[in-house]
Amino acid sequence: MQALLLEQQDGQTQAQLRDISPDALPEGEVTVEVDWSGINYKDALAITGKGKIIRQFPMVPGIDFAGRVLHSSDPRFHHGQSVILTGWGVGETHWGGLAEQARVKADWLVAMPEGLDSRKAMVIGTAGFTAMLCVMALEDGGITPQSGEILVTGAGGGVGSTAVALLHALGYKVCALSGRSATHPMLQQLGADTIIGREALNGDCRPLEKQRWAGAIDTVGDKVLANLLTQIHYGGVVTACGLAGGVNLPTTVMPFILRNVRLQGIDSVSVPVARRVEVWRRLIKNLPATYYQLATREVALADAAEAARQLLANNVTGRTLVKIR
Ligand code: NDP
Fold first, then answer.
1. Residue 223's pLDDT band (boundaries 50, 70, 90)?
2. Using CA positions, which residue lies closest to atom 39 of ligand 1?
3. Membrane-crossing residues (predicted)?
4. Which residue has a Cα nearest atom 3 of ligand 1?
5. Span 36-55, mean pLDDT?
6. What number of other Cβ atoms are within 10 A of residue 111's Cβ?
7. Are residues 135 and 236 in the same domain?
8. Which residues span the domain enclosing 94?
9. Tens digits of per-residue pLDDT, 132-150?
10. Which of 123, 139, 245, 273 is the most exposed place for a label (fewest CB within 10 A)?
11. Considering its fold, how many domains does the chain have in total?
12. Residue 86 falls within a domain, yes or no?
């Protein structure tokens, strides 16, 4: 079987397409023939070695995949069944989806829900799954379309573009923050009502600014997150899922103690199974058919490493799908 294999030489991560024996796959109850995987930000950090994602080499990256069960020793899954995997450290500490086969724990798999297929599931991928978690967190915080405008940062990326599509479909007014004018046509087609440039929120800010947003979905962190927090309505909710702009958060307590703002962290890796099933149900229900065409490009497994470099260089719009077979 073919796999993208990450190895380390002189402290540098090397990514090579290799022929490996399926016997080399790690332990797990279910072996899956992978049809589609994707390049998420975390995959790009792992493949290029720019982030300390992988600690044990050799490693097959790929934090998500969809495919069909080849063998299962667990009664919940049978030969030929379509399944999805996101998270659980797959592609980080356990060999992942950028390979023709993957062997994983049955507990980590979700049976393909009605209304999805392998390709559509990976158009959504971890990025889209995370966008839905963010939208559900806004809802859990009481934010409705009547509350006011929602800001989405890093809007041209996988999480951001899916968040724009979901919020628009749910009737929210959406402002997309993007650092690139090339993303504007896609963002408009996905339903962004307004688009602002990254520089609008990338400078120094006062502890509180004019209240502008009922909520925000932030994929960027650092100054952008600090700035938007100063502009959130009284009682508003901000979800923080990403670090595309940096890991710092140079803020003050003022938005929290004077405007009752809620900052909700989002993790997609260890979401309990029942919540996962609900997230996929909502994605199928809320994403419009156009989303699957607008926010996607496809690459071959042999081109996955180059796609990872392009993603980190901020040259990619929407989701990158990897066609495995
Ligand atoms: P993408 O690369 O697809 O999107 C990131 C976007 O952020 C880019 O398209 C760009 O949008 C913007 N961006 C890039 N560089 C910078 C920068 N230096 N400063 C400000 N904005 C920048 O990645 P994903 O959508 O896959 O992931 C987005 C973030 O969410 C990542 O940090 C990722 O690690 C995180 N994430 C977290 C998860 C979790 O479980 N918490 C799960 C999935 C993702 P534009 O050009 O439009 O400005």
1. very high
2. 267
3. none
4. 157
5. 96
6. 14
7. yes
8. 2-112+295-323
9. 999 999 999 999 999 999 9
10. 273
11. 2
12. yes
| pLDDT score at 145 | 98
- Decide: 131 in ligand 1 pocket, CB within 6 A: no
Ligand 1 centre distance from Cα of residue 244 (Å): 4
- 79 and 159 together in one domain: no
- Considering the domain boundaries, does residue 230 fall inside one? yes
Question: What is the ipTM for the molecules in this complex?
Answer: 0.99
Cβ of 223 below 6 Å from ligand 1? no
Say if residue 201 is in the same domain as residue 240. Answer: yes
Asked if 187 and 218 sit in the same domain, the reply is yes
- Please report the sign of the dihedral spanned by the C-alpha atoms of residue 1, residue 71, residue 36, residue 23: negative
CA–CA gap between residue 213 and residue 55 (Å, rounded): 40
Q: What per-residue string of b and e applies to 138-171 under the rule 16 or more CB within 10 Å gives b?
A: beebebeeebbbbbbbbbbbbbbbbbbbbbbbbe
Residues 61 and 179 in one domain: no
Same domain, 260 and 133: yes
- Atom 23 (ligand 1): residue with closest C-alpha? 41
CATH number reported for the structural domain that contains residue 84 in this entry: 3.90.180.10
Question: Do residues 240 and 134 both lie within one domain?
Answer: yes
Residue 160 alpha carbon, nearest atom of ligand 1: 25
pLDDT of residue 244: 97
Q: What's the CATH code of the domain at 175?
A: 3.40.50.720
| Å from CA of 318 to ligand 1 middle | 10
> For residues 259 and 256, what is the distance between their CA atoms, to the nearest angstrom?
6
Given pLDDT bands bounded at 50, 70 and 90, which one contains residue 39? very high
The answer to whether the CB of 86 is under 6 A from ligand 1 is no
Averaged pLDDT for residues 244-266: 98
Residue 159 CA: nearest ligand 1 atom is: 25
Query: DSSP state, 79?
Result: T
Nearest alpha carbon to residue 280 among 84, 134, 81: 84
